[in-house]
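Journal club side-thread
Mid-discussion, someone asked how the predicted structure for our own chain would compare to the paper's figures. Pasting it here so we can look after the session.
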Amino acid sequence: MSVTLSKLSLRNAKRQARDYLVYFVTMVLAAGLLYAFNGLVFSPEVEELSARLSNLPGMILAASVAAVLILGWLVSYTTGFMLSRRSRELGTYLLIGLETRQVARLFFLENLAVGGMALVPGILLGNLLFQVLRAILLALFGMPYRFSLAFSLKALGLTLVYFAAIYLFALQKSRRRLGRMKIYDLLYFDKQNEEAVLQTGHRRRWIFSASLALGIIGTGLLMMGKMPFGLLGAVCIILFLFGFFTSFASGVPAWFAKRPARKYQGQSLLIFRNLTAKLATMGVVMAIVSLLFTATLISEGTGMTFSAIFHNRMEKDAAFDLFISTEDETHLDRYLEEIQGNIPVVTAHRYAVRLGESDQVIRYLGEATDYYRCYDADAVIASSDYAALRSMKGWPPVALPQGHYLIHCEDYLADPLEGYQESLSLGGQSLAPAGIQQGRLNQNLRGANGHGFLLVVPDDLALALPVSHTVYAAVTEEPVSQAQFRALCLVREESSAMIHDTLKAKAIEESNAAVWTATTVFPLYYLALILTMAAATILTIQQLSESDRYRRQFQLLRKLGMDRREMGRALGRQFAIYYTMPALPSLLIGVAFLLDLGSMVEPGTLTGPYHPGIITAETMGLFFLIYLIYILMAYTTLKRNVLPEA
């Protein structure tokens, strides 16, 4: 008997893998992602970078644990759904003489076999994904990449542990449930629907209105950017989603009952009859799916925002191979002693950033933009020092006409400063504006070449102004190493008076940006992808499970005279509404959250290609790209299976 059960389990497992292809493909991808990220944790490259990436293994493991919980819920839901769909078949096994424990074991083994079948190609795919992640990681740190296809036993073992935990928990739960069910329960289990949460029209309308209010309040609280308000906002969002979908699902029939004419327009009766029948049985599930989509957009968009912040800040602070500034000029001598003989320098320049006689440009920018003030007066540099910096950067020389001044600024201030035509008063002379110049020149916060902008004036006028800080900028033969930079930091730490000195090295800033990207952005993208796959799989399984009912329905409509093209349009409209409903609230919340997140960053950080609007659009685009793949898979499969041949 055990041999027969094993054969039957294997046959049913193959059938399930075919009938629930989307679920099977998702588990293959999930296994691949788990193995790929586990491979990073145990890779020699991460061990080599452990001094800088000490948090990466922990962050990946934390993201993997979250992914395991999400996938565990997906498997638990799917096996429970399969149990309801195959309950009559399993009840028939009891009728022909199998014991309850044997049927439970049969169901357990065949679903475990599905997981095993997904695990094998998933590991193979994971090895390729690991190579992609490894190449990206090495590129971030400027390290050479060599393709080497080799399995990591540690990564494989951890992936097996994850998959075993996912399937054994979910299947043991279904096995216990089967063990308690009688023949009658199994035969009629597929007829049980999710009970309508809201029965009366008055209560339904009240809950629907209250849920909308909670959604608006919750989104506003999330946008405030403070932890207590954020937690309260998250609770409001959860209540909104559950209230919205449970009241909406039960409210559609009532809406059409009051508008019978709308019910019979075009294909409305067919579309909304199928839609309400589906929503009536999965209102809570739709709320959970919408919640997962919301988490996806926030996770993915936050990852993109952080990536833009890290990259933009790195570009701002990495204009020179080495940049040192101090308010006490004598400190530079100590740094130069360390640099000589230890850091080969190609060219360098020592100069002073000074303070003008007024803050007129700062006040102008404060009125015209959301500029953040860092200095009491406008930052000024002598024209000869500016010419030396341009030469070090390889930029063409710029002539400063007699009696004029020019402005060098960050890109985000170029447009407002184009309209600035005020003269500048220095040393009793009036200087006319000579235009603006742009380019990265270490113009970020205090201790830099001004914050966002720098006024270039004639040397004789600049020398009469008070010094804000003294700067040493250099181009080196080789990138400044971690050891060389640490030695400079030790010089700074020798005296507490030097703590506020600014030390920047291009190679170190690039490395820091890479570290933050690897430890923050990677796990967020990973989590977003898992969330998207889980939610889209639930929706698709629910839709494809109705194939038999749709087939009978469309066969009847064909006999009544509806042509295949009209059936296809009806099916397409139904699909569009079904897949849009859980995504629409998530989009509204996600867009508001991401735009507000971008506005919380200091001015000038998220500009140009890093603008919050562009990041939000890219987040939506990536989300819909993955979502659309699932929609097309479901629509193509269902259309092929249910529409009668022409």
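Post-session note: The CA atoms of residues 307 and 517 lie 6 Å apart.
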